[in-house]
Structure formats: structure tokens, C-alpha cells
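Justification of resources, computational component.

The compute hours requested in this renewal are based largely on the per-chain cost of generating structure records like the one below. Each record pairs the submitted sequence with a full C-alpha cell output. That output is archived, and it is also reused by downstream analysis tasks.
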Amino acid sequence: MKAIAYNIRKQEKEYLVKANAKKHELTFISNELNNDTVIYSFDKEAVLLYTVNSLSPELFLKLQEFGVKQIISRTDKPSNAIVHLAREYGIFISYVHNSLTDEKKALRIIKQLDRLLDASF
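The structure output for this chain reads:
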């Protein structure tokens, strides 16, 4: 599974790398997802974001065109409006609860990527 994590902090990256154990191809960038950085999601199946509730239809369209199938929010539950908007573009949104430690978030994120990988076969 190819995934990209936007707006990633050093500690989050360390936990994700450890939890991943070289199973998925992860890319990390410190910038947030926007019109200038969306190009980095090209050919990725999943995108990890700090928050999803401010995504625009234009970004969803680009993500769809680039092949993204899932977005995982690392801090908040997505609003119903964002979930429905994403579904219009064939993108599923999930999240890990903000109250978890960074280590537990990383484990849950990798588990979600594992499920997506298993579902694609």
C-alpha cells in the first residue's frame, strides 16, 4: 500500500515507521495538504492528514484523479458533510481519535492500511 502523511511531526513519523515494519510504502512531508502539495499524493492509495474537515471539493477531485481511495484523519472525527463529499469522489474517510497517544494512533493507522490492502486483493 502506498500512502502519504501530510503535516507530519517527527514523533508521529517515528511511531508510524516502527508500527509499519516496512509493510507499506510510506511517504512523509511536513507541509499540509493544499493545492500546491496535492501533487505529492499522486499514485498513492491512502492519505494521512492531521484534519479533514477543511478539505475542498477541488482537493477531493485531485485526490480522486491521483488514485487515492482512503483518507485517515489523525486528530478528529470527520463531519458528516465531509464524509458524504468524499464518497461522491469514491474516497472513504476514517479517523483515529485524538485522545490516543501517538504510538497508539500509529498502530491504528497501520491496521487501517492493512485492512485496505487486504480488501484490494
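The radius of gyration is 13 Å. The chain is about 40% helix and 15% strand.
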